Amino acid sequence: MERRIKLKTLNEHITCEICRGYFIDATTVTECLHTFCKSCLVKHLEENNTCPTCENVIHQSHPLQYISFDRTMQDIVYKLVPNLVENETEREREFYKSRNLPCPKDMPQVHDSDDKATEQAHQEADYHRQDEQVNVCLECMSDKLRNLKRRFIRCSSQATITHLKKFLAKKVLNGIDRYKDVSKLMRYNGVPFQQVVYVPSLVLQIDI
Prior knowledge:
With 208 residues, the chain is an alpha+beta fold. It is 28% helix and 10% strand.
């Protein structure tokens, strides 16, 4: 049985809290999973390092590195809202035209015809992060929790304690949404590892 619902009942899920319009280039904060228009979020993060919705610290110094384009959400918005793609494309063309600039969407795409050169470029590309790496040893100090198969992990020094808590929640508590049960060191949540590595031992309490 087909069920129809009004678009306005979904608006709170597909509109940007900053501009109050439908998502354009939907971009999600990886720390808390709140979504905004890309231009709105980038402008907000020029002077802030917190999420506009929950005000959690995204990152102390590099918040733009912890946001990502949400293609799934954007596809949903385009399918739900009639003529949104056409209207947005037209507005974009008018924007560039008023400034005597070519619209990127109207420019011809450049394709590399040399497949061998493309393949070689992929092979030579460095896909690893260039920032400092941190080695972490995870020791279980309770008989009530199962041990991890791998006690050692290696991650970027830009990773935060919250990332570690979410990792533990997924591995030990079988659900990333339970990361708040890893309750200790709340004051370190948004601080990157490179600022807390001087602590010889971090004890994280897991509430069962």
